[in-house]
Please model this.
Amino acid sequence: MSRPMHRSRPTALARSAWRRWFLDRTAEFWLGELRATWSLTEQRARVTGVRSETVDAKTFTITTPRAWPGHVAGQYVPVEVEIEGVRVRRCYSISSGGSEPGRQSIEITVKSVPGGRVSTWMHAHLAVGAVVRLGAPSGEFTVTAPAKLLLIGAGSGITPVAAIVRDLVARGAAHDVIVVEAARSDADAIFAGELAALATLRSIAHPGSPALHHAVQVIAHRGPLDAAALRAYAPDLATREVYVCGPAPVMDLVAALVGPRVHLERFAPAAPARNPGAATRARVHLAVANRTVEITRGTLLEGLERAGERPAHGCRMGICNSCRCTKTSGTVEDLVTGTISSEPDQEIRLCVSAAHSDLELSL
Amino acid sequence: MRNLDDATVTAFGAELDALRAETIASLGAADVDHIRKMIRLVRYSEAGGRALLHLGIGPLTFALGVSALAAAKILENMEVGHNVMHGQYDWTRAADLDGRSYEWDIVCTGDDWRHSHNFEHHTYTNILGVDRDIGYGLVRISELQPWEPAHLVQPISAVVLALLFQWGVALHDLRITETIAGRQSVAKLRERARPFLKKAAWQLAKDYVVTPALALWNAPRVFAGNFLANGIRNVWSFAIIFCGHFPEGVVIYRAEDVETESRGRWYQRQLAGSANIEGGRLMHVMSGHLSHQIEHHLFPDLPAARYPELAPKVRAICEKYGQPYLTGSFRAQLGSVAKQILRRALP
Model:
């Protein structure tokens, strides 16, 4: 599963000219020539395995570089690939359990979303031996305290849930865990067999454990989830910490049912381009300055200036590139080409872009 | 040149905009492959040149080493650095092709260049008093520039500028003459000079201290090789840049002529203010595709390697609207520039 990216790239501009010339380019080039995964500036990782989980879901095994900081089960990692010459990043939940720092094997499981640029490309082209770039793993969808757990993964939302289950089992920390693995049909269910095997394994490992009562109980649910089904699966719902990842309706349902004890992992495939017409008012969040301003009509540059911001700029006509910045989310129109784009992490020029929605900029 | 009314200029601009949009829509892996191939060529040519200079014996390996190093510097400055810094590859979002952080192997800092060249020169191309690239404040190339007695020696100063072109470009950005004329404060000059001095120091250290020292007994040979390679790059880039804007027939503008300028009129000025050099693929690549100065000035942020395929389309649009399209062989354009420099030395 993927989730929208919110990153603030440490700015390369703050580094000295010497560093940019020597370390960032010269040294980086020769390291890359020696070995494709060697780098001082980014985490380049090799794909070491690809396997199909279902008709439209594949798991990619990735060997992390030495600079890998390690991660906690349930977290996601930004993955950058080059598609038609363009570097594109998406965040994917790591479906394998937690990892230590350094060279590790991690797995991401990607469902091919029709129209999804990155997921369809990965399914078609990402093969063993390819090099991808990884960002820093992050995310709060992690189990911190031992407690009675209800883990719900719906559709491709099963990926961080599977990671947590694998991790708990591997660490022998699964004491009373109910896993609801929900999918449209058996053919769509990712990890169904593996999760079922984990449940069985635990019941064998603890033959004397009291009734209820596998330490890990896995329930395969097919079709839409509803409150009645959840209450039947976990009658002691009120006493459990609940983790849920899946489509928005499922998460809304569980959140309404459980209240504050719910942990949610929201995800959305990249928003499709839409054409809502230029916004007359838009809220622009400036990520670096950590300010939100409201802008009205005209170009982003004019709007920001009217709002009292002073972004760097030059020609004000889309030539000199001085006002370029990264739009991390939202929809903008390129006023020169008329192209409307909702692509996350897109480089735009403020002087020839207009807002079509609320935006987040790396300014 | 046919005078165009506002509506016609708008249509002219729209045709060029459409050409730009069409090219942007077709950008892809081939463009990235090209620039990465160029970067690889630069790196291996530099490494090869240095190996020949450091380890070689005799004049032949010296000449080969100097040629390889000069070719690397020319390619790095012109085909890679200049084009990447224009943001021509920003759409790739690759860190090493990022226009705003690129730093090149020349004494002029990338940041100074981005301001003086990308913004001032490309926005105000050939406008007297605003585009400081007209004759680099040293050479009079148009009768619109007021004559001064100092211009009498410009045939000599042009040769000196060519030989020391990287220093000319870097010092030009500091606006020393403006400070002398009282239009820039000394404090501002000092502020501008700081990054330049820092970069000049490490460039000099790299070319004339560190790399010669690494060559041990071959130090004088490496010193001389670096000096020659820098010089060859200087003369070549001077020639290409002067041929791009100063042959006879290129139009120089007054600020008042362009006060309220539409996008179409801007295109028209870029066209009239630039000249192409005809040649093969080698000429285009070694000039960083500035042999297509016209296409570069119309579309400074499109990958330069696309200019050759755009050129016939641009030319057809120019013909349709009766606009001039100055082009000629390298020899003809260089001769024309030389003639201008000599003629304008006199009042």
